[in-house]
């Protein structure tokens, strides 16, 4: 499944002007269920966060969460890290245009070699660890980079179908919606144990993307991306499609965030140093 090219194409459409970029961020906040869960956790953390907090987005991508965090604390310093140089350049350019570059910086970094001791109050890792083979090394690096009392907030697929991969055929070949993951997802006890072994004192984890969340994900992500892979003409129909499905998917996102799930295809993990 060609998922990354679709994301890049959408990014190019919305990157022409700052106001379009901000609109893109707000649309992602509304549509992406993981954004709902992350915003909820960020809001909880911000209540007692130091006024001079230093925040790291480890795998910042389009800069969506950096933008969100920058509006929550006017004195917070925020650093975004990504492995893609074009992504770093794009984000730095945007944040300069909106006059936030004095406290928001993006750097190209491989997290397996990241080494900053006790610098951050909060580290965010959204859909990153499932892409990294040596995930324990990265967990150790991020723990080392946190100040005492800091937290690492993780969103990642679970091992209950979170990467939507399917093993089939005699050679056990893998197909699915997202092909760039190095693991299908995390077992909830497995990721807790890995984080404790990496130096964290306490770890909390809960399932996301339960039944309502999976319905919303299929409506807002899977069906449109499948359609766009078949024909780029669907870009023209996309606004009308979302006008129809958005009210129902919004309701499903709300239920997913506010319900307890015995199982789910996603995980929200909070690790305390």
Secondary structure elements and pairings:
Elements: H1 4-14, H2 18-31, H3 33-46, E1 54-58, H4 64-70, E2 77-82, H5 85-97, E3 104-108, E4 120-126, H6 135-145, E5 146-157, E6 165-168, E7 173-176, H7 188-197, E8 202-208, H8 211-230, H9 234-258, E9 266-272
Parallel strand pairs: 1-2, 1-4, 2-3, 4-5
Antiparallel strand pairs: 5-9, 6-7, 8-9
Helix pairs in contact: 2-3, 3-9, 8-9
**Number of discrete helical segments:** 9
Cross-sheet strand order for the largest sheet: 3-2-1-4-5-9-8
Shape: globular
Radius of gyration: 18 Å
Q: Give the rounded overall mean pLDDT.
A: 89
Distance between the termini: 38 Å
Summing up helix and strand content along with how strands pair, one would put the structural category as: alpha/beta
Which segments are poorly predicted (pLDDT under 50) over 5 or more consecutive residues? 166-175
- Topology order in helix (H) and strand (E) letters: HHHEHEHEEHEEEHEHHE
Number of strands: 9
What profile does the largest beta sheet have?
7 strands, mixed
Helix content: 40-55%
Query: What fraction of residues sit in β-strands?
Result: 15-25%
